[in-house]
UniProtKB/TrEMBL annotation:
Taxonomy, superkingdom: Bacteria
Pfam families for the chain: adh_short_C2 (PF13561)
Family: Belongs to the short-chain dehydrogenases/reductases (SDR) family.
Higher taxonomy: Bacteria, Bacillati, Bacillota, Bacilli, Bacillales
Gene3D superfamilies attached to this UniProt entry: NAD(P)-binding Rossmann-like Domain
Alphabetized UniProt keyword annotations: Oxidoreductase
Organism, scientific name: Cohnella cellulosilytica
A Gene Ontology molecular function term of the record: oxidoreductase activity
Name this polypeptide is given: SDR family NAD(P)-dependent oxidoreductase
Length: 270
């Protein structure tokens, strides 16, 4: 699945699923640009890993919830890479939100980061691809929480659901230009890399997943690499779950401490 000489921009690329995607695309021949939020050391280490593969790499500090960041940083990535053929929107943050305590600031933050930034990056990428007549690919990382409802999840889950639906409309609009738009909806994913199979199966929550373990960033990255490749040239407007069967089994939203639920897991496990 070699893609020699191609280019990709990954938001939220310095850690977790985004990092897995950036590394995988670099290994398949892409020059990569990515954003990070606060952890410069993570960005530097990823830059070193990608350049060691012989690929060009650029990284930018970007608070994607800020008003002009998405458009500005996408334009910078296009300028540095020279062109943009793959746009992967991954930057995001889980927000738990009890409606009785919900603030207007919480709503605005979730909207700006988890929806608005995706749409503006997609818009900038699509305009560039159309202008340059590039048969590009846009991938949005959403969540199975956009499909199944959990308590205290009207914001993050709601924004992911909106992205799943937006992906379908974008796919219809951009298909005449040869631009494909797809979404990947991970389930419970061990964000930190380097887990052993035993560790992926160790938590009480993992035992409730039909496949009996958490997913990994590398697995999500493999799906993204396929979706942007020529092998998936007939796929657009899809929302592909990658959750080990998580939402098939109807795991109850409640439960005591002995039965932890995904919506309540620490961020490192999402």
């Amino acid at each position: 699945m070699e893609q020699a000489g191609k280019t990709a921009f990954v938001t939220g690329g310095s850690r977790g699923i985004g990092r897995g995607i950036a590394e995988r695309l670099a290994r398949t021949g892409y020059d990569v640009a990515f954003t990070y939020n606060t952890k410069l050391d993570e960005a530097v280490s990823l830059h070193q890993a990608i350049t060691a593969m012989g690929r060009r790499c650029f990284y930018y500090q970007a608070s994607m919830e800020q008003p002009d960041t998405a458009e500005r940083v996408t334009a910078q990535a296009i300028a540095d890479l020279g062109r943009l053929e793959v746009m992967v929107c991954c930057a995001g943050l889980t927000v738990h939100s009890n409606v009785r305590k919900l603030s207007a600031e919480d709503i605005d933050f979730a909207y700006r980061l988890d929806y608005r930034s995706y749409m503006l990056c997609a818009r900038s990428a699509a305009r560039h691809m159309i202008e340059r007549q590039l048969a590009g690919s846009i991938v949005m990382i959403t969540s199975t929480r956009g499909t199944r409802a959990y308590p205290e999840d009207p914001l993050y889950g709601g924004m992911k659901s909106a992205l799943n639906r937006a992906c379908e409309s974008l796919a219809l609009e951009l298909a005449p230009y040869g631009i494909r738009v797809n979404a990947v909806a991970p389930g419970a994913t061990a964000i930190r890399g380097g887990y052993t199979p035993e560790e992926l199966r160790a938590s009480a929550f993992a035992r409730q997943i039909p496949l009996g373990r958490l997913g990994t960033p590398a697995e999500v990255a493999g799906l993204v690499a396929y979706l942007v490749s020529d092998e998936a040239a007939y796929m657009t407007g899809t929302v592909t779950r990658m959750d080990g069967g998580l939402i098939l089994s109807g795991i109850p939203a409640g439960g005591g401490e002995s039965e932890p639920q995904w919506h309540a897991l620490p961020a490192r496990l999402r």
